[in-house]
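Anyone able to model this chain together with heme C?
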Amino acid sequence: MTDHSPEIDNHSGVETTGHEWDGIRELNNPLPRWWLYLFYACIAFAFGYWVLMPAWPGLPGMSGATPGILHASDRAKVAGELSALARDRAALSAKLATLDAASILKDPQLRQQALALGESTFGDNCATCHGPGGRGGKGYPRLADDVWLWGGSLADIEQTIRYGVRSGNPKARVIDMPAFGRDEFLKPAQIDDLVEYVMHLSGQPADEAAVARASQVFIDNCKTCHGAAGTGDRSRGVPNLTDADWLYGGDRATIRRTIFGPRGGVMPAWGDRFDPATVRALAIYVHSLGGGE
Ligand code: HEC
Ligand code: HEC
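re: yes, here you go
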């Protein structure tokens, strides 16, 4: 490359820059206007941006980048949104924990929020035993029907959830059916008759002679809890034996096994694990599953 003084290109009539490479000379055409203005605009924008927005990192005496006079920060924005969410949640929790259930159910927005919280908590903690949507399983009562061991009002349900059943909590609901077979309160023949009696109570085919023999044994041993007619006692968690709804099962073998020794299923006390608002949300959710009273 050689350096010449500016001269005019014969071919185009345009001044050259004086730069030449292997006989190719550079014309000194002006930059296109649009390009030039865009270029100046970019420079102006960059200066504006540096001043207004966080821009230059690593300056001495600065922990992050220069903050810019707008103090824009995505992190601060997210933190603000999160704390607004936490405020909303705290307000919800306070209302759920302090308002009585009837007022919560009357407020559509509050009811909706309680149901959402209850449903997600249920899915994570209760569905393992009670099944998805509370459909129940052997030994784990169905919560989506109107058959209740311990009562189906909001207050009943909430108490069951808070303190549990045979959970070890001092306020837990507790009732233990005696182990009639294991502890030899009754003879095997009496238990056989009682199995027929329970079959009969629940409307299933049964040996009539056995039913007749068992009726007094039932009065003597079972009436105090299950009632003379076998309809149970919802104030004490005693199941109704006359319906088709079974906690453990209505076939002969299962009934015999239940009379032989108690099952004593354990329902944990969730009040030890969740705050009052969550317990109430759970109660509202369970109450909404279909059998709430
Ligand atoms: C470890 C298994 C287990 C888990 C987990 C569990 N439960 Fe239970 N639950 C039981 C058993 C067993 C009973 C029946 C106790 C009895 O024999 O009275 C029961 C009973 C209940 C009842 C009373 C039903 C009635 O008919 O009166 C309610 C309400 C209930 N559970 C709600 C819940 C909720 C809500 C959760 C989650 C926070 C939950 N349970 C988690 C085992 C469980
Ligand atoms: C102290 C009260 C009590 C007495 C007395 C009692 N039961 Fe029970 N029974 C219960 C309770 C509570 C349950 C719920 C099962 C459990 O969790 O142990 C139950 C459950 C049953 C079940 C299972 C029901 C189901 O849905 O699966 C049968 C059957 C039964 N009892 C029959 C009897 C018979 C028969 C007698 C008399 C020989 C009797 N019970 C005496 C309290 C009692």
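The chain has three domains: 2-52, 89-171+267-288, 188-260.
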